[in-house]
Amino acid sequence: MNRLFLASLLMLVAAPGLARAQTPLIPKDYAVKFQMSLPPTWETARDLNNTKLMALEPSAGPTDPFRENINVGYDGLPESATFEQYRRSLFSALSQQIPSFALIDSGAAPLSGRPAFRIRYSGVFGAQSVRGTMRLVPQDGRVYVITATAAADAFAAHEPLFERIVQTFKAE
Question: What is the pLDDT of residue 131?
Answer without folding.
Answer: 96
